[in-house]
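Pasting as-is:
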Amino acid sequence: MDYQYIFYTIFGAIGLPLIYHLSLKQNSTLCALIPALPLLGITGLILTNINANKNKHILTTNYLKNIIIFISLGLTIYIIIYLVYEIINNIVTSIIIGLIIGTIIICYILSYKI
């Protein structure tokens, strides 16, 4: 049995309960900080680099380009949610609109990458 997956599962499963706990304490700053930490992205970068058999430089460069694109897209979605929420004052509708626009942008980006 490969114990790496169990370690990654436990390591990743700490985030959601921590966010939930911070939301119960109404600590919005730390609650927002947890998903903003680049821990998963850096882990992916290290694992991509370690597990690359050939073309390590190309794979690492492509990973960095892709993570920049997707972090920018995530930031764009949050900005859309914020702007819509400021206008209509309904978080559920704001999230739905932000995710719909984000999905359209993701499909557009992926259609050119594949």
